[in-house]
Amino acid sequence: MAYVLNRWWGGKRLDYALYCPEALTSFPTNSLPQLFHGSYWESTDVVAFILRQVMRQSGQEEVDGETNISPGFTPNSPREKWIHKRTAIKCRNISPNHRGNDVVVLEDSPQVLSAKFMYGPLDMVSLNRERVDIHIMTSTPSGEWVYYDTEMTDNNGRLTYTLPIDKRLSQGMYPVKMVVRGDHTCADFYLTVLPPKTECAVFSIDGSFTASVSIMGKDPKVRPGAVDVVRHWQELGYMIVYISARPDMQAKRVTAWLAQHNFPYGMVAFMELKSDPLKQKTNHLKTLINEAQIEIKAAYGSSKDIHVYQNAGIKPNNMYIVGKLSRSAKQSTLSSQIVHISDGYAAHLEMLSVHQTRPAMGNARMLIRKSCFGLPCNRTKSQHKLLTKSMSLTGGTLSDKAEDNSSGIVIGRSGNTVVKAGQIGAGKAVQSRGKSPRAKVQQP
User: What is the pLDDT of residue 212?
Assistant: First the structure.
């Protein structure tokens, strides 16, 4: 308890995080209180907040200077000079955007890791012909990272590594960290080794979760009850698979959106920036079914995902389509066989409870993580500050101010919320004031 007190509120503080999307800076200030309140309760409930604070480990990822190395991980070698001098010039003052899709393989099958090392939000610079160290946490409870090998990226910034036969991993979920030797930035993803016939539930991120069009352009609203439906399948022992037709350059932003809204942990896959992303989704699902031998017992998405799931070999009665059906979907022969969720997730969840969906079968239930996504740490220390408000437990007075530099929101001594409208827009910064979404603290 003493450790929790020191980490959470110290001797006289009670800090809480308030989720603030950047898109809120463009809203009228008189609407901010309602939006803040709604955003808070959609993103983090009270119990989840308390559990996060109490169960937070000292080794939780934090940003360390200009890299995104967590304190619990120590690179096996110091930073070294780039092999090519032009790399230092190209990567200077550009944030890394390294990523890799989570790998799902069958036990005793080749275990191939693949990642892409790019810089800039739009992949302006690729890391060509540079050395990268490969680490895997082979013993998850102990948190010990094992160095495997050092490989060289290709001319497009890609790296593919096949684990040697004598070093293949048994069944389990293993964090993978590929660290660039030149600047110690890294790509993080998971290697999951499964037994045959592992049952899972697939969710199309854009089709089944969001109530607005774009994740990249603004923070979309979550469909009510979406998180509860995913938790329902996770609690029954099914492995969760998130799939999106969005290009993998948006992986960090979309994964952060899943984390901010407390979605249960699952394997995440994004597509390459090619002409037919829906076909890539189909091929990815076919690979999971044929090579990893998973069994998809539920597939959620929108009407555009019907043909994707059909071509992947998923049974129509296992397809759950959210929202309005397109004209072609209504005319399809599958329209009478698929499950159309027209009344929202709340009614659908009640239906699942009434029909008592059976728990997942097989030993894979012991391997699946029943937790939420961890918030990614790809920002600098100055950008990593949470929007907090500090309250003295004895005196009941507010601290001078608490601010989030990245979102442009400041809470002052008076309790008013100050929005820096020019933080993400063009032109000069203009400050406007609105009432705080929380009631002011009364003096005793």
Answer: 59
Q: In what order do the strands lie in the sheet with 131-139?
A: 103-106, 186-194, 172-180, 131-139, 144-152
What residues contact 118, with CB distance under 8 A and at least 6 apart? Answer: 96, 97, 98, 99, 124, 125, 126, 127, 157, 249
DSSP 391: B
Token output for 130: 């540079």
Query: By the 8 A CB rule, do 105 and 191 touch?
Result: yes
28-64 per-position pLDDT tens digit = 766 666 655 554 444 445 555 555 555 554 334 433 4
As a whole number of angstroms, the distance between CA 345 and CA 224 comes to: 7
pLDDT value at 85 more than 50: yes
Q: Would you say 216 and 314 are in contact if contact means Cβ atoms under 8 Å apart?
A: no
d(CA 114, CA 158): 7
Looking at the DSSP bridge assignments, the partners of residue 151 are 132
**CA–CA distance, 148 with 11 (Å, rounded to integer):** 44
Decide: 334 and 306 in contact? Cβ < 8 Å. yes
Q: Phi/psi at 31 (nearest 5 deg)?
A: -100, -5
b/e map of 57-83 (b: 16 or more CB within 10 Å)?
A: eeeebebeeebbbbeebebeeeeeebe
Q: Which two tokens stand for residue 106?
A: 């069958």
Closest CA relative to residue 84, chosen from 130, 148, 29, 48: 130
Q: How many residues in total does the chain contain?
A: 444
Number of CB atoms found within 10 A of residue 10's CB? 12
- 46, 49, 57: which is closest to 7 by C-alpha? 57
Mean pLDDT of all residues in 343-362: 89
